Amino acid sequence: MNETVKDLEDVCAPSWYKLVVSATKKVSEFSPGKNEYGKPSTAVKIGFCLKGAVEVLIGEALMNDDDLAEKKAKKFLELLEKNWKNHVAVGAHQTMQEKRWNKQDDIPLTKDVVALRDHLRKIEDKAKEELTKELSLTAYKTLNETVLAQVIIFNKRREGEASRLSLHIYKTASTNPINKDIYETLSPLEKQLSGLLTRIEVRGKRDRKVPVFFTERMKESIDLLLERRDEAGIPAENPYLFARPGALTNIRGCDCLRKYAEDSKAENPELLRSTKLRKQVATLSTPRSK
């Protein structure tokens, strides 16, 4: 749009503010007639990135004792803070909101969730029976994967929270009354479960402490995995509960869900993922579940 601009530093000046707004609207496919953005998230991200870039520029000007560059950069930042919202951000957020209103909310059918759960339990039982008799790396891997998938489903947790559970934290699992502050954040169902099931508390989104529950069935399988842990070749230094044999890493819950969802004969296995699954699975987890 302007061939005199060679790099990002060139446009971080008050005189180029209007050009930056125009370029942002072009990149994010803004339609003046419809007053909407084809790529609203791009417009929002550009605003954040520009602020980050100009703050770096201000820092460099301060270190170089360049008063002129510092003054120009600070004025550009002031324009971003005062005018960007009205010129770009508000319209972009409105477009994003409208797209969410009209977007079909694809969540898995209850029968698909049930099919996945039943499939996981069937595979789990077979692996557990085999592993109880003798060590089998295949059975160990299978039991590891199916239990992790069930922990994600049962707790409606993001797969990363469950995948990265530590062995140390699991060993502190409790059935004692839950902390009052945490208890107040739970759903009615989780409040019932908190007094009946084994639980641990982990760091969740925004550093909030959240509970992870284990049924007796899950706990029996996990305890068997721990009994066979050394024999399966998991290094003593591996800190994860759902550890990967021969490595210091954990297995990935998203991979487990994808693998067993495709094998479960569900109608829409692509919807049986951690995020969408959490929206539907609450109806299946009852205090009597084993």
What do these coordinates show?
- With 290 residues, the chain is mainly α.
- It folds into 2 domains: 8-102, no CATH class; 110-284, Orthogonal Bundle (hpI Integrase, Chain A), CATH 1.10.443.
- The chain is built from 13 helices and 4 strands.
- The chain has a two-stranded antiparallel sheet. Strands 3-4 form a two-stranded antiparallel sheet.
- Helix 2 runs parallel beside helix 4.
- The longest helix is centred in the first third of the chain and has 36 residues, at 67-102.
- The radius of gyration is 26 Å and the shape is elongated.
| Estimated radius of gyration | 26 Å
Count of domains: 2
Q: What characterizes the major β-sheet?
A: 2 strands, antiparallel
How much helical structure, as a percent, in the residues?
Answer: 55-70%
Estimated share of beta-strand residues: 5-15%
Give, in order, the helices and strands: HHEEHHHHHHHHEEHHH
Shape: elongated
Distance N terminus to C terminus? 64 Å
CATH class of the largest domain: Mainly Alpha
Look up the CATH topology of the largest domain.
hpI Integrase, Chain A
Q: Please state the second-level CATH architecture of the largest domain.
A: Orthogonal Bundle
Which descriptors would you attach to this protein?
single chain; 290 residues; mainly alpha; hpI Integrase, Chain A; 2 domains; two-stranded antiparallel sheet; two-stranded antiparallel ribbon; 6% strand
Provide the fold topology.
Blueprint: H1 8-11, H2 17-27, E1 30-31, E2 36-37, H3 40-63, H4 67-102, H5 110-133, H6 137-155, H7 159-163, H8 167-170, H9 180-183, H10 188-194, E3 198-203, E4 209-214, H11 216-227, H12 253-263, H13 274-280
Antiparallel strand pairs: 1-2, 3-4
